[in-house]
Amino acid sequence: MHQSLSKPESRPAPLGWLEVVAADSSMDQAARELETHLQSLPLPQGRDRSCRFILEVGRCGLSLQDQSQPQMRPLRLDAVGMRRRFSGRDLLARSIGRRCRSVVDATAGFGRDAFHLFHLGKRVIAIERSPVVAVMLADAIDRLVPSARSDSLQLICDDARRRFTQCDPPDVIYLDPMFPDRQGRSALAGKELQILRALVGDDEDAGGLLHVARSVALQRVVVKRPAWAGPLGSVPDLEYRGRAVRYDAYLTA
Length: 253
Ligand SMILES: C[S@@+](CC[C@H](N)C(=O)[O-])C[C@H]1O[C@@H](n2cnc3c(N)ncnc32)[C@H](O)[C@@H]1O
What we know:
With 253 residues, the protein is of the alpha/beta class. It folds into two domains: 1-76, no CATH class; 81-251, Rossmann fold (3-Layer(aba) Sandwich), CATH 3.40.50.150. Helices cover 27% and strands 21% of the residues. A seven-stranded mixed β-sheet has the order 6-5-4-7-8-10-9, with helices on both faces. Strands 1-2-3 form a three-stranded mixed β-sheet, covered by helices on one side. The longest helix has 14 residues, at 131-144. The structure holds S-adenosylmethionine.
């Protein structure tokens, strides 16, 4: 894992709304370590008094089950979901600009866009503030990124606003905060979106994140928005319009 896991000294208190389980007895130790690791992080409190999520540690990686949606299969970040998306009009690739070599994906989520940018050959730092989402993504990066290229896709679990000042300024900062709650989201499957919303809420502070990002990016900040919604900040300098989503670019150079 890219995130350091400390050895547990005693069984941690249950996390309440999140239960960490091993898929089989050979994964017990790994599950205990992950539980202790999550315990040490500032997880949201009081989200749901009854346990709602099950994070399963298996030989083939992590999977996350929302117990309140038993009909949904557990979420697992696999190679198929994270592979390069071939598309005639790659709006994300166009929106970051031809000169872009490095990107901070400051709202990494489950990493679909971060992996896409990585597959485009960019140096990517992905930042995700939800520890549960971040451990899922760290696990996917460990399994799916060849070690020879691991420097090109790094993950930080923190609030991006705190980290911007600690990273070398990237050419582009990419933001994809949670869309306002309305149907029509295409980039995330329904299951992922439901789990994300239950875990992280609505990202209501995204306007502030854009403001800080514009003072840091060397070339531009790109914001993904639903096609039907207005811009997150002021009128963007460039717009890349698709059927369901739009990428708004704010030039900084
Ligand atoms: C819609 S999801 C991003 C989906 C992602 N682009 C993908 O392709 O899977 C938004 C994510 O941004 C994260 N986020 C929002 N504001 C953040 C911040 N200030 N710092 C770090 N992560 C943030 C949320 O926790 C959530 O996981």
